[in-house]
Backbone:
């Protein structure tokens, strides 16, 4: 398949692996954060980490939108879903995210009308087919997903749909990256930037990482050769004493963002003053809500929302995992009390979550050989 | 739903919450009044895709699609190798 086969080529992967090993200084430990959950998934699914020298460590960032939703928001979603007039729609993974009072899947088992959809447009179709019910879409996701919600709301508005609303939990990626960079907990040498977010916002907004914090950042694609190539580009910058924004994913990502996307986002959304991120706490201007123009479609105005903050379970260390402070398997409940079948924390729910990715693809390799890959 | 199935919409090994996951689809036809089109994936499954982010979409375009919305038109000119 075009744009896939060449970026899963084993020979290219092997060459990049050898070049990375040749670049890595043996007495230096490198920590590189992949911001996006899609990259985390690729790294474990294809064993990318095993192609790196032991002193090149990939640290998983806060880029899985399921993982960063706090428990209180899940409880609010469940409260809406339990209303008898409501058909509550959401992406599949969100059904299994535990709040303080269970999951949407459990609410469904108890009689709530909760339905899985693959897009906001699917939810709007359900509204069209059920004019006597209130259809609510649980909107999660970064800048990649927010335009889809926005375009769907613009269509609903144009068509005069009155039984459709959105429980908006869209978040933006730059504020949490800045929060991580300002955190004293973490020392990072470089960043693998989120490729598909950049199809919307462009590569340019990530330049502050290089210019303001002196860290190399490479916008990366999602195939294994993409990720290896990005690691190589970061190590090359470090070896040459550079800290720049580079774009490995040029086949998709432009330097400037999408003017059309900014237009629809600006029409439908506005920034929230602050929003709670799981593991990271409240971050200013890091999430979206519906603008006044689309207030009629705002589920938070249509239904009563408790908005109670719920503390994470004590045993759960998702916060440390999301900040890259600990590895998934270092969590006390990883793989024992917390599994993909019975998740305690959000990172074990979505397959892009670091814990689920590690559990599904990498849990048996935690003690992998520490022998560096031979340099050419 | 227009013959959609797992191939274009995620599977057990891929996140269906789509934080950052997207797939390539070929645009078959455009409905300008709805600002959408019918796309087909590699497996031949068709679905409606919103085209509001694409300038002058045309049948035959290869699109990067995420959550039912086309994010980018892919340039198929062989100018880049990994």
Residues:
């Amino acid at each position: 398949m075009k744009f896939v086969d060449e970026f899963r080529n084993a020979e290219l992967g092997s060459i990049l692996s050898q070049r990375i090993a040749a670049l890595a200084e043996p007495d230096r430990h490198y920590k590189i954060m992949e911001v996006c959950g899609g990259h985390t998934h690729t790294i474990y699914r294809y064993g990318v980490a095993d192609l790196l020298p032991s002193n090149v460590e990939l640290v998983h960032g806060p880029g899985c939108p399921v993982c960063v939703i706090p428990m209180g928001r899940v409880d609010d979603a469940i409260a809406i879903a339990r209303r008898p007039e409501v058909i509550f729609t959401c992406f599949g993974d969100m059904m299994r995210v535990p709040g303080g009072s269970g999951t949407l899947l459990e609410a469904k088992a108890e009689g709530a009308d909760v339905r899985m959809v693959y897009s906001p447009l699917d939810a709007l179709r359900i509204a069209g087919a059920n004019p006597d019910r209130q259809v609510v879409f649980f909107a999660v996701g970064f800048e990649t997903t927010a335009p889809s919600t926005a375009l769907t709301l613009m269509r609903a508005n144009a068509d005069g749909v009155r039984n459709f609303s959105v429980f908006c939990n869209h978040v933006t990626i730059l504020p949490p990256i800045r929060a991580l960079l300002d955190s004293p907990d973490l020392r990072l040498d470089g960043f693998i930037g989120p490729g598909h977010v950049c199809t919307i916002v462009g590569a340019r907004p990530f330049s502050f990482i290089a210019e303001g914090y002196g860290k190399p950042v490479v916008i990366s694609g999602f195939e294994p050769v993409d990720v290896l190539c990005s690691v190589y580009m970061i190590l090359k910058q470090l070896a040459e004493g550079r800290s720049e924004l580079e774009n490995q994913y040029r086949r998709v990502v432009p330097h400037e963002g999408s003017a059309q996307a900014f237009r629809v986002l600006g029409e439908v959304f506005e920034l929230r003053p602050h929003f709670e991120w799981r593991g990271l706490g409240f971050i200013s201007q890091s999430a979206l809500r519906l603008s006044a123009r689309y207030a009629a479609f705002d589920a938070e105005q249509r239904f009563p929302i408790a908005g109670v903050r719920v503390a994470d379970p004590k045993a759960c260390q998702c916060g440390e995992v999301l900040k890259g402070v600990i590895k998934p398997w270092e969590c006390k409940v990883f793989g024992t009390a917390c599994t993909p079948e019975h998740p305690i924390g959000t990172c074990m729910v979505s397959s892009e979550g670091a814990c689920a990715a590690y559990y599904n693809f990498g849990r048996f390799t935690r003690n992998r050989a520490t022998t560096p890959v031979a340099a050419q | 739903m227009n013959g959609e199935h797992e191939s274009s919409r995620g599977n057990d090994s891929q996140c269906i919450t789509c934080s950052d996951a997207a797939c390539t689809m070929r645009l078959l036809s455009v409905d300008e009044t709805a600002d959408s089109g019918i796309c087909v994936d590699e497996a031949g499954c068709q679905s409606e895709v919103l085209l509001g982010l694409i300038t002058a979409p045309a049948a035959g375009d290869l699109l990067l699609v995420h959550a039912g919305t086309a994010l980018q038109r892919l340039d198929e000119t062989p100018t880049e190798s990994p």
